[in-house]
Automatic annotation (TrEMBL):
Keywords: DNA-binding, Phosphoprotein. Coiled coil: none annotated. One of its GO terms (cellular component) is cytosol. GO terms for molecular function: phosphorelay response regulator activity; transcription cis-regulatory region binding. This is DNA-binding response regulator. SMART domains: REC (SM00448), Trans_reg_C (SM00862). Residues 11-124 form the Response regulatory domain. GO terms for biological process: regulation of DNA-templated transcription. Residues 138-237 form the OmpR/PhoB-type domain. Residues 138-237 bind DNA. It comes from the Bacteria.
Length: 239
């Protein structure tokens, strides 16, 4: 392996359930100049990310529990994080699905670790030296103080009230807060929930929104979540 040409210690989190492969990737990336850490599942990754966000994430799809595609869908709401899927799934439909979910690159196993390192460097050059934040950055003043915290498992409002989310609620709000003030279609929300728009009932999306509003009311929140007839939902305070 060649030594990296830059001295920047980009923080990389590897999410891989194969213990030997995870260790091999972490050690190789460290040797190549990255600040790498490994995690075996989504839960341990989210906990570490909430405390110390990474610049780039290398994610396997076939993880126990929450899969890598779900992690990518959630992370795309966090500005500055570059995502590389590394998986044995090499069919075109799998690659397209991974990129549509938000991955910046898709590599099929077995992956040469020099290639992985160069992919990470290329993504860093393209994105620039942007430090990631732990929560999605709102795009409009109307939602400036609404944010997801603690690995996106807690919603906080402008008054500092907090509401713990289920995995479904978290995926739903993560997608909406990725585009604050903008209409998000039911199809996009279904995709964020890990479903297929062809066999996923749109009524389930409405049920999630209804449940979130009622849950927010119980903790004293007035959730700025509005349905848009014939389209989907928008997260924004009224003008």
């Amino acid at each position: 392996m060649q030594a990296p040409y830059d001295s920047d210690r980009t923080r990389v989190y590897v999410v891989e359930d194969d213990e030997d492969l995870c260790e091999e990737m972490v050690l190789a990336l460290d040797e190549l100049g990255f600040d790498a850490s490994g995690f075996r599942d989504a839960g341990s990754f989210y906990k570490a990310f909430a405390v110390r966000p990474c610049h780039s994430a290398v994610i396997d799809i076939g993880l126990p529990g929450e899969d890598g595609l779900s992690i990518v869908s959630h992370l795309r709401a966090v500005p500055g994080v570059r995502m590389v899927l590394v998986t044995a799934r090499g069919q075109l439909k799998d690659r397209l699905d991974g990129l549509r979910r938000g991955a910046d690159a898709y590599l099929v196993k077995p992956v040469h670790l020099d290639e992985l390192a160069e992919t990470l460097r290329a993504l860093n050059r393209r994105a620039g030296p942007v430090a990631p934040s732990a929560a999605p950055a709102p795009a409009t003043p109307s939602t400036t103080m609404w944010r997801l915290a603690e690995g996106d498992w807690v919603l906080t409002d402008p008054a500092g009230r907090r509401m713990t989310l289920t995995s479904t609620e978290r995926a739903f709000l993560t997608r909406l807060l990725a585009s604050p003030g903008s209409e998000v279609s039911r199809a996009d929300l279904i995709l964020a929930l890990g479903g297929d728009s062809f066999d996923f009932s749109a009524h389930r999306v409405d049920a999630i929104a209804h449940r979130l509003r009622r849950k927010a009311q119980r903790v004293g929140m007035t959730l700025p979540l509005h349905s848009v007839r014939g389209i989907g939902y928008v997260f924004a305070e009224p003008c």
